[in-house]
Amino acid sequence: MLRKFLMSTFLVLVISPPVLANPDVWVTTTWHFRMAEQSASGFTLEWTFDPFASSYLFTVFDADGYGTVTSEEAQAKEDGLFAPLAEEDWYLTILGSDESASWHVQHVEPVFEPENFGLRLTVSLNDLQAPFVASLHDDILFFDFSFAGDGFLTVEGPVDPTCRFVAGPGTGALEGHLSTITLRCGDPP
Predict the structure, then answer these.
(1) Cα distance between residue 143 and residue 179, in whole Å
(2) How far is residue 25 CA from its own chain's centroid?
(3) Alpha helices (H) along 16-128
(4) Taking the alpha carbons of 67, 109, 133, 175 in that order, is the dihedral positive or negative?
(5) What is the distance between the alpha carbons of residues 171 and 24, in angstroms, rounded to a whole number?
(6) Are 164 and 132 in contact (CB under 8 A)?
(7) DSSP string, the chain
(8) Please, are residues 27 and 120 in contact by the beta-carbon 8 Å criterion?
(9) How far apart (Å, rounded) are the C-alpha atoms in residues 171 and 185?
(10) What pLDDT score does 27 carry?
(11) pLDDT class for 139, splitting at 50, 70, 90?
(12) For the segment 45-74, what is each residue's pLDDT rounded down to a tens digit?
């Protein structure tokens, strides 16, 4: 009897799928790229937090409890709240054709909308040439990033007609990244 129990327990453990962590904060994103033919000078990335996280963050920023967030209140809390995100490079990975890309976050601005809290990141890419890939990913799964529907990607400036943006799961070095945007040029459609 004990042998049957141990064998069935072992089989359940061996064939069971791995348990994945559940994220604490869901973030939808929109991406606005600044282009010049086959290169990108940068992009603006907007994060919109889920209603629960938005509500919590609003109360953190609204220090006086009057129901609005003043610029002084926002500035007083930004460094403490944003420092951990900055240490993680805002969960952003950008790779060029040679697996390295020069980029930096120029500016971060909190966005207070009636229903949601968000962040607007301005990222400089130093005229990164295609092909390149940009991704948001949290290995620990505190944040779950997804695209914000049909209009999640916009482009400003001239784009070479042979170029196209592709969104979807990452491959290669970005295997497991679900919110990945790739710019490819010269590929057949």
Answers:
(1) 12
(2) 12
(3) 51-61, 71-87
(4) negative
(5) 25
(6) no
(7) -HHHHHHHHHHHHHHSPPP-PPPSEEEEEEEEEEEEBTEEEEEEEEEEE-HHHHHHHHHHH-TT-SSS--HHHHHHHHHHHHHHHHHTGGGEEEE-TTS----EEEEEEEEE-SS-EEEEEEEEEEEEESSEEEEE--TT-SEEEEE-STTSEEEES-B-TTEEEEEE---GGGTT-SEEEEEEES---
(8) no
(9) 18
(10) 94
(11) confident
(12) 999 999 999 988 888 888 888 888 888 888
Q: Distance of alpha carbon 132 from its chain centroid, rounded? A: 16
Question: Which pairs count as long-range contacts for 1-4, CB under 8 Å and 24+ apart, including other chains?
Answer: none
- The yes-or-no verdict on residue 16 having pLDDT over 60 is no
Pairing relationship of beta strands 39-49 and 92-95 according to DSSP bridges: unpaired
Look at residue 109 and give its three-state secondary structure. Answer: strand
Structure tokens given for 63: 């220090």
- State the pTM of this model: 0.81
